[in-house]
Each structure stands twice: as C-alpha cells, then as structure tokens.
Amino acid sequence: MSNLHVRNGISTVEPPLSQAVGYIIVVLIGIIIALVMMLVTKILKKTTGEDNKKTEMFMTANRTVRTGLTASAVISSWLWSTALLGSSFVGYDYGVAGPFWFAAGCSPMIVFFALLGISCKRKIPEAHTSLEVVRIRYGRAAHIVFMILCLINNIFACANMLLGAAAVISAVSGMHIIAATFLLPVGVTVYTFVGGIKATFLTDYFHTAVILIIACYFSVKAFSDDQIGSVGNLFELLKAAAERHPVSGNHNGTYLTMTSKSAILFGILHTCGNFGLVVMDTSYFIKAFSASPAAVVPGYTIGGIAYFAIPWALGTVMSSVALGLENQPNFPTYPRRMTTSEVSGGLVLPYAAMTIAGKGGAAAVLLMTFMAVTSTLSAQVIAVSSILSFDVYREYFKKSATDRDLIRSSHFGVIFFAAFSAGFSTMLHYVGIDLGWTLYMLGVVTCPGIFPMVFTVLWRRQSKAAAILSPILGLATGLAVWLGTASHFGGEVSVASTGQVLPCMYGTVASCFSPIPYSILITLLRPQKYDWADFRKEKLALENLDSNLTTAHVTGSPDHSESSSIENGGVQSAALESKELKRWGRIAAFWSIATFLGHWVLWPLPMYGSRYVFEKKFFIAWVVIAIIWLWGTMLVAIFYPLLDGGFQQIRQVYRGLTGKENISSSVEGAEKETKDDPKVFHSSSSTGSTDEGHRQQTIKADVI
User: Fold this and answer.
1) What separation in angstroms does the CA of 567 have from each of 29, 473, 672?
2) Mind listing the pLDDT tens digit for each residue in 17-41?
3) What is the full DSSP assignment across 93-106?
4) Residue 8: its pLDDT value, please?
5) Which residues, listed in sequence order, are joined to residue 291 by a DSSP beta bridge?
6) What is the C-alpha separation between 553 and 504, in angstroms, rounded?
7) I need a labelling partner for 274 at 20 to 30 A (CA). Which of 101, 122, 593, 650 fits?
8) Which helix (H) or strand (E) holds 119?
9) One Gene Ontology cellular component annotation (predicted)?
10) Could you give the CA distance from residue 266 to residue 249 in angstroms, rounded to a whole number?
11) Residues with Cβ < 8 Å from 31, sequence gap 6 or more?
C-alpha cells in the first residue's frame, strides 16, 4: 500500500487539504445529494406518477428510459474512480500507450453490450436481471453458478473502486482511509434505497456532468500553467523525462511511442477483464432492460464511443504533467520520484492536479473521485439488491412475492451490500492490496462466465451441462494459470508476485477464453437446441397489487384471465416489435465489430508494429484530438439527455407542481383507456412523456 496512508503513522507528503474538507465532501455532500434525490423521487411520484413502491419502477424504471439518459448512464457506468486514477497511473508507467490501451479496453465491450441488450429485449422483454435468463433456460444449478460469478464480479468491482478512491481521499485530505472506505457508500445507500434504478440514472447524470466538467477544466488548466504553457512544451518535457528515466520495454525507452511491451500486455488483460466486468455485471443488464427498445442500441453505442475520450484524454494529459514536472520544486514528492506504491495507489492524478492547480486542484480531484465512486457504487448496489430480491428471495424463498415483499428485500440488499463491500475493501487494505493489484487481477475472477453468458443469449445450442461446467472449469483454469505463472516469474505466490502484469495477463486470458472450448466440447457430447419462444412462457413482470384488475395475476393463480393476458401481450409484443428489434440487432452487431476493429486493431496495432516515436506535431495532434473528443463527450453526457426528453419531463413536473396537470385523474382515465388500447405501453418510450400514468396502469392490464 502507499506510504501516504496513515497506516504507520508517517506520511511523506503533507495532505494539502484538511480532514474537515474530506469529511464535508464524503459525508455532507453525500447526504445532500441523497436528500435531493429523495425530494426528486417524491416530486416525480406526485407529478408524473413514477411510484418507486412498485417493483417495475424501482428496478427497471418501467422500461422507458430514453436514448439520451441511457447514453449518459452508460458513460457513468464505466466512469469508475479506477478509470480516472488508473488511466493516469498506466500513463505514468508506460507513456502515451498506457491511457490509450486503458480506453481501448473499455469502449468496445460497452458497444458490444448493445447487442446483448437488444437480444434480451427481443427474446425475454420482461426480465429484470441476466440471472433470470440463465435460470429459465438452464434451471437452478446453472442459476446458482452464475449468481456466484456475478456476485464475485460485483464484490471485486466495488473493492477496486473503494480502494482507489479511499487512497486518494486519504492522500489529499488526511482523512483516515478506513473512515473514507466506510463513509463513501452511505449517501449511495440512502438515495438508492429510496429511488431505485431511476435514482441511479438521475444521479449518474449529475455525477457524470460534474466529473466531465472537472476533467475538461484540467485539460485546459494543464496548458495555462506557466511551467507547461503549450502542448508542444509538454512534448519537450516528456522527452526530457525519458532521458532521465528511460522506460523499460518501450522502444528507445521513450514515453512517446505506442511500441510498449508492458502497455500492450496491460491492454490485453484490461480488455478481457473489462469484458467480464460488463457481461457479468447485472447493472448493465438492468440498464438495458430499463431502456426503451429503441434506446438500447443507440444509447450503448453513443455512450461507449463517447466514453473512450475520458481515460484517453485525462490519462494522457495528467500523466504527462506528472512525468514532466516531477523534477520541479512544487511537485508534491520533490526531490524524489513517486514511489511504486504511490503510483499503484492511484496518486498520479491528484499529484499532477496539485502541481498545476494547488489546493484547488486537490479539491477538484477529491470531488471528482467522490462523484465517480458514488455513481458507480450506486449501479453496483442496485445490481446486487436485484439479485438478492429477484434471484434469491423470489426464486428460493417466496415464489408469490408481492411488490412490497420485493421492495423490502431490495432495500435489505442495498444496505447489506454497501456494508459488505466496505468491509471487504478494508480487509484487502490490511493485507496490503491496493488499486493496482485489483486493477490487474480483476479479469481472473470476472472472465470465466463471459462466453457461457453470451452463448446463453445468442447461441441456442449451448447445453445445460456446458452452461454449468464451462465457467467453473474456466475459473479453475484461470486461477491455476495466474498462481502458477506468479510463482514461476516471482519465485513465490505473494501479493507482490500475483499483482504483476504478466501473471495477471496470462490468468485473465485463460479465464476468458478457456470456457469457449469447454462449452463447445461439452455441448457436442450432450447437444441441445433451445427454442427462444420458451423464454416468453414464464411471467416475470410484476403488476400493481392494489389493482382490482390483476390481483390474481400477481399471486400466481393459474386462472384463464392470466393466461389470456400473457398470451395476448406476448403475441402483440412480437407483432409490434420483433422486426424493429431484429433491425436494431443487426445495427448493434455492426457497431460492435467496427468499434473493436477501430479501437483495438486498425488504430493502435500498426503504430505498435512500426515502432513509431511521436514527433512534436503528431503529439500535438494526438493530445488536441483527445481533448476535443473529451469536450464532445461532456456535451453528449450533459445536453443529450436534456434534449431527448429531459426538458419535456421538467415541463411536466412544473405543470404538475403548479396544478396545471392532474396526475391522479390522468391515471384513473388511463386505467379505463388501456383496456381498449393496449398499444399505449408499446408505443411509449419516454420517461418524460405525459403518459407515465398510462404506462403504470397498462402494466397492470397488459403484461408482456
């Protein structure tokens, strides 16, 4: 761990901010955001009919989130504190190749998820979590296997975020690292407890806006600093840094090349690991299920491509600042270089910010880190609470669970996981594990379920035995390779040896790809062919229990009206949406391939193979394009949701508060109207439309 942590009672760098500032941001701002979200939740219920006491609203926002808010939420989902801190530290270690490979290891799988998301919307539109899909197709044994894998994914993801964020908060404010670890989830727990997935979408939007504004500020501030002055001067500083400290494994030892052996190894393990973090993270499926059918593919594609600029631009600029100015008296560690533990602890970004912006830079990084970790923690918390409520409580304890039962179990899940993740992160801290270790080894435990899960959604021939055994065998293979190579290269199995790039890369690749032959071979031994239509035979969506129309439906009574409702809904849904969803599926497949080829193959690999060393003009273009892309991402994240339904919902809320629109009478009228016009639900695609009351009543009368 970093020697800046108050672990031995000694700190080599004096925190620029007081502990009071740390507590104000972590506790006070967290509580303020939670209170504001509670108020917003009540206002939305009053003015738009969005009732978070209903499970469909709490977990899936009635499946009507539009493209703009979906894109913003997708950007936020990957806007981990790890992305902000990690992209800077790999830039410090590997040069310009590090932030690029960090970004290239994120965007392609976000875009690929659009294909999974739209396939799920087409084949099983009522699902709440990916685990429901597994259970329906393969039964309880596979369900339990994938549940464990998903929970492991969420646990390590949260630990990765908390370790990096707590280390930075401790370094810049002097706040005790354990206090930061336990206090960070408090505000998240409160607003997620009250607002559910819609609160997550809205806070994602707010947090992402703040983070991107600060990131864009740093992209300008770096070049207005007298020590740098321009992109060209930063180039000269990087050249001088390479002369002082050549980079092992980089062509000519320079920071200014994509020919970096360590960077491309990191790119491989980061890409595979992030593939696992996306596919095995139920929060991605929840957000896909929450989006309207027409919003899934454009939302995930726009969000994924826009996201690329954040680690690329911020990591490149801030790591270059740290490398170029660390020999200046105002650099926090002067006259020495940053230690390995400081770099691995995620302190490159805050130290660079302190160098160019003083205490203001430290405060900005503190706020940015807080916003990033709480935003992504919210998605993780709602994901785990959905598993505990739908996949544990509803499936194994109370089949006939009501809205009230599921909301109560979701609330329990929110509180339990927030506390557990803080405790788990504390345990890792005390055994000497930091941000760098978790960043490198994540893929070993998150990757085994990738292809079995993808095959579950896209390949009808994967057998039940293959789905159960291949991820287990893949995990065993990955762990064996990881620990074996750590022992071989490090001489022992220890925290230090298991956190090196090479063992983690080998272990991650083994975990990721070994389930493919396992699944295919087992499937060939026991072949099966699944009928996608079977997904629609199981009713998953819940209705309002207070409705006299559908009490029997919720309790699960096998009466004729229920069967008729489900059958008619399924036929109607297929008739209205099947062709359109297939079209979106083809678009998603195209963008998945194009994004991977562009970000991972056509752009970086020729530069790696040619051993090209950046010239000044090329470096200037590289940085300027990255910054322009970053500013474009900020505009997309902030203004697209407002233009795509946001202003409409604000107007609706205003009309509701001023008494110009009576929501309760609208809802009563909708209940009668939707009996004769069930298309209302399928044609609605905006959380901001005045048909929100219609949607909620339609869910009661027209279960898809």
Assistant:
1) 49, 39, 21
2) 889 988 988 888 888 877 887 787 7
3) HHTTHHHHHHHHTT
4) 34
5) 65
6) 50
7) 122
8) helix 107-123
9) plasma membrane
10) 12
11) 186, 187, 190
Q: Any idea what DSSP says for residue 328? A: S
Contacts 24+ apart (CB under 8 A), 450-454: 450/275, 450/276, 450/279, 450/280, 450/512, 450/515, 451/512, 451/513, 451/515, 451/516, 451/519, 452/146, 452/515, 452/519, 453/130, 453/134, 453/146, 453/279, 453/280, 454/116, 454/279
Using the 8-state DSSP alphabet, how is residue 692 labeled? Answer: H
Reported as half-sphere exposure (CB side, CA atoms, 13 A), residue 379 has a value of: 33
Distance CA 117, CA 155 (A): 23
CA distances from 233 to 222, 224, 229, 230, 357 (A): 11, 11, 7, 5, 18
| 131, 391 contact by CB (below 8 A) | yes
Whole-angstrom distance, CA of residue 41 vs CA of residue 519: 45
Cβ atoms of residues 577 and 682 within 8 Å: yes
Which of the 8 DSSP states describes residue 78?
Answer: T
- Number of other CB atoms surrounding residue 74 within 10 Å: 30
- Residues 385 and 446: their CA atoms lie apart, in Å, by 19
Minimal CA–CA distance to 225: which of 373, 352, 131, 323?
352
Distance CA 503, CA 442 (A): 12
pTM > 0.85: yes or no: no
pLDDT in tens, 610-645: 999 999 999 999 999 999 999 999 999 999 888 887
Q: Which residues of 463-490 are buried (b: 16+ CB within 10 A; e: fewer)?
A: bbbbbbbbbbbbbebbbebbbebbeeeb
Residue with tokens 């209705």: 543
The CA radius of gyration of the chain, in Å to the nearest whole number, is: 25
Token couple for 307: 């996201």
Tally of helices (H runs) and strands (E runs) in the chain: 33, 0
3-state percent helix, strand, coil for the chain, nearest multiple of 5 = 75, 0, 20
Ordered domains of the chain (ranges, CATH): 19-431+560-642 (1.20.1730)
3-state secondary structure string across 205-222: HHHHHHHHHHHHHHHHHH
φ and ψ at 676, to 5 degrees?
-95, -20
Task: Provide the residue count of the chain.
Answer: 704
- Rounded to 5°, angle at Cα 28 from 343 and 650: 105
CB-based contact 85:435 (threshold 8 Å): yes
**Angle, CA 312 vertex, CA 334 and CA 441 arms, to 5°:** 80
Q: For the segment 407-464, what is each residue's pLDDT rounded down to a tens digit?
A: 788 778 878 888 898 999 999 999 888 888 988 888 999 999 999 999 999 899 999 9
φ, ψ of residue 498 to 5 degrees: the values are -75, -10
Let me know: does 163 contact 5? Beta carbons within 8 Å.
no
CA distances from 43 to 50, 51, 554 (A): 9, 10, 28
